[in-house]
Amino acid sequence: MKKQGKVIVITGPTASGKSALALDLAMRDGLEIISADSRQIYSGIPISTAQPTPEELAAVRHHLIGEFPLDAYYSAALFEEDALRIARNQLEERGSVIVCGGSMLYIDAFCSGIDNLPTISREVREEVAASHAALGDEWALEELRRLDPDYYEIVDRCNMKRVVHAIEIIRQAGASYTSLRRGIRKEREFEIDFRYVDLPREELCRRINERVDRMVEEGLVEEARRVYPMRHLNSLNTVGLKEMFEWIEGRMDFTTAVERIKKNTRVYAKKQMTWHKRRDSRQG
Is the pTM of the predicted complex or chain greater than 0.70? Predict the structure, then answer.
């Protein structure tokens, strides 16, 4: 297949400087940026999700930033559809576009595609959530084991979000999750220029700590208080807000909460780096 246009995909661990690199390239070459961040897509939480500043948004057009309300359903499958549509329009207009973000599943979805899993309806999502809330994690694990024993054997059983989502998919599709997970790589009609931003571990940890301190200075506390009544939403299940919610509820002091954000952000960065290593090994 002859490739039509080039998409520059910039990713890397949180606080590594990938957004600044994308902004510089976009300004230099007159390009637009598609965000590949599963939390920046929501409105109302710009500080905790480290969204681009108003000045940066004014300098370069960003897509999929703050576009959905906090209670909206969104997924990697929807991102693949939206990002590809935007990218193809940009390739037609400009010949190139930048995709930038650290959500590993979103980057995979754009570059390689994901299985065509069903979009979960509000009814199914609420039904499964109600059962989980009433009957607990043991119910969810047993339900998945009953519905799809093969997937039950390989799923991370400590990751209840993944367990519950698998149940949602099975109920929505009327078929086992295993039967839907084919893992077939999709060929894109455009060239992908993949760039991974890496930093020495000590430098990355320093930048993470500085970013968290800056978030606090810019109003993280006020943002967390504002969305606290909606804390049950999946969009708010994110590092930075979860720890602030615990502080608001009196389950830890403020200093501990801030240090916990730094620690959990470092843990997330490590997961991002592990994903890249695995991706490298698959590509090789």
Answer: yes
